[in-house]
Amino acid sequence: MASKYAEAGVDTAAGDLAVELMKAAVSRTHGPQVLGGVGGFAGLFDVSFLKSFERPLLATSTDGVGTKVAIAQAIDKHDSIGIDLVGMVVDDIVVVGATPLFMTDYIACGKVVPTRIADIVAGIARGCAETGTALVGGETAEHPGLLGPDDYDVAGAAVGAVEADRLLGADLVADGDVVIALGSSGLHSNGYSLVRHVLAGRKMTYAEHSNELGGLVGEVLLEPTRLYTKPLLKLLADESLASSVHALSHVTGGGIAANLARVLPVGCWVEIDRSAWSPQPVFRVLAEWGGMALTETEGTWNLGIGMIAVVSADAADAVITRLVTSGVPAWLVGGVTVGARDLTGFEQGAKGVNGGAVRLVGAYPA
Predict the structure, then answer these.
(1) pLDDT top residue among 13 and 344
(2) Which CATH architecture has domain 10-166?
């Protein structure tokens, strides 16, 4: 006989099966620091190594992937959305110079479909493995009546550690520093409400093929977020270069200028040269479909820059070479100037941070 809970729409047996299906993928992210395996009330992580730190600082971040999940649901493809989640959470940890230690996830859904949940978590596990982060726990919550049977949302949180004297940030940024762009893989996980609005205006479905985009619309739009953690940690572990890296900025919601301004000190300004790179076709096509100039989308999409490094000028070439060797496109886009000037048209800080001033200048290559 079905339980009253099952009659109410919650299938605990399906939840248990989902856990069984994801166990192998999750376990592959575990090293000797993870205790207790999968399924406990709390994840356990041995931090004895922090005893060797002079002054250990813990860094934490939490985020989701926004309305990108709607596209995954529309084409029933769920194996990469977890990589996006790791990108949004773990790559925020490395911005301060911290090494990510562990992550937990949360999936809310209208109905637990075990294979779907397992696909989502497998993607999270792949992202965690790529960034060296242990996936130590999570929760799948079934919310019938609140979410439709095929609806879900994902979120996660991570913790990292950094030695206090290796912390990156605005206080290290100096006059004459240069700004290096790290290429994105595409839209990453921001601005999808605008993407969906553009496609709705054209009455396009995600299952359609687009010659302009070069494939099925939904699959192109689900291109996973590029993960920067390991290449950046490798760069910061190089004692010949580490002290030359002063600040990092993860280009997420708000675009290039606003996110860079958050990690600059008050009193400095940067002009980002648009002519230094060419945004990928996905940005150009979507902007054209929406009747927008690329410049009108700069506060919404990353336009080809997923992370930014502010470094001393004498180390710029070496930093770029190291990043490119690690598989991350990187190039010079501007410089830091300290001093008074008219800041009309500049972004000045964001998300509660009273930071420096940034604006984009010039024109994108045709």
Answers:
(1) 344
(2) 2-Layer Sandwich (3.30)
